[in-house]
Each structure stands twice: as structure tokens, then as C-alpha cells.
Automatic annotation (TrEMBL):
Keyword flag Membrane: no
Annotated SUPFAM superfamilies: P-loop containing nucleoside triphosphate hydrolases
Residues of the signal peptide: none
UniProt-annotated stretches for the region Disordered: 110-130
A Pfam family reported for this protein in Swiss-Prot or TrEMBL: AAA_33
Organism encoding this protein: Microlunatus antarcticus
InterPro entries reported for this sequence: P-loop_NTPase (IPR027417)
UniProt keyword annotation of Endoplasmic reticulum present: no
Listed GO MF terms: kinase activity
Keywords tagged on the record: Kinase, Transferase
Name of the molecule in the record: Putative kinase
Length: 149
């Protein structure tokens, strides 16, 4: 499935694409939570690089009475390099990711700790947010401002 028609291998980095991605992710969260409330098993898999993202989604799900599980599969940097190289070689139209970018992104990733993986307590939202819902609406701007999911 193509989300962004005729993207070049570098256009995915643009601020416009980041804004669109955040809005699309927000809609996926909204639809996913509604489906989960109906008893459908839902897997949200679009990064969750930051603990705050995972905490917000765990909080939203918990507030809806939905059970959550954080699943993390660790992949070392050498394997990531191999996969990126293979992806690009198999289709040069795939976005290009330099080794320096890969290392920079790896530094930004916050791996879940054991407490998070075991479903431990959800921390408080970061200031200035009074709730995880407020934080989530800022992170994913397409979420409804009033909690309806």
C-alpha cells in the first residue's frame, strides 16, 4: 500500500510527510482502540520509539478497559544495517538510510525496560500535560480533543 503517491527516496523525511504521518497514526490509534473495545485483537506497530508514546497508548487502552501488551524484539545495529542494505538493494526506490542516520536514530530509540514489558505501572505524563490524553492529542493531532475512543 502506498500512503504518499510517488514519493522519492528522500521525501519521507519532509516536515509535510511527518505531519501527515502523525495524523494517520492518530487515526490508526482511534480505530484500533474502538476495535479493541469490540473485542478485536489489535496490533499497533508503527514505531513507538519513545516510552511516552507507549505509556500514552497503554493509558488510553487501560482507560477503555482494554488489555495491552508491549512486545519488543531487539535487533542489534549490525543486523539493522544488513536489513537496510538488503531492502535498498531489492528495490532502489525504497528510501535511502545512511549508516550515520541509522546510528543517530538508534540513539533516539528508548527500548522498553522489564517493568514496561511486564505491564507495570504507567508513569505520569510529562509536564505540562495533566493527562496522557492531552499528551496523545498533541502527539497525534487527529485524535479527537474530547476522549471518545
Amino acid at each position: 500500500m502506498t500512503m504518499f503517491h510517488l514519493d522519492s527516496p528522500t521525501q519521507w523525511r519532509s516536515p509535510e510527510r511527518a505531519s501527515q504521518r502523525d495524523r494517520i497514526e492518530g487515526k490508526l490509534v482511534e480505530v484500533g482502540m474502538r476495535a479493541a473495545q469490540l473485542g478485536v485483537d489489535v496490533v499497533l506497530d508503527f514505531g513507538f520509539w519513545a516510552k511516552d508514546e507507549r505509556s500514552a497508548l497503554r493509558w488510553i487502552a487501560e482507560s477503555l478497559g482494554v488489555r495491552t501488551q508491549v512486545v519488543y524484539l531487539s535487533v542489534d545495529l549490525d543486523e539493522q544495517r544488513r536489513r537496510v542494505s538488503h531492502r535498498y538493494e531489492s528495490g532502489p526506490s525504497h528510501f535511502r538510510l545512511s549508516d550515520a542516520e541509522l546510528e543517530q536514530w538508534q540513539e533516539q530509540f528508548q527500548a522498553p525496560d522489564q517493568e514496561e514489558l511486564q505491564g507495570g505501572a504507567i508513569p505520569s505524563p510529562p509536564p505540562p500535560h495533566a493527562s496522557w490524553w492531552s499528551w496523545a492529542c498533541e502527539r497525534w493531532p487527529s485524535l479527537p480533543k474530547e476522549r471518545s475512543v
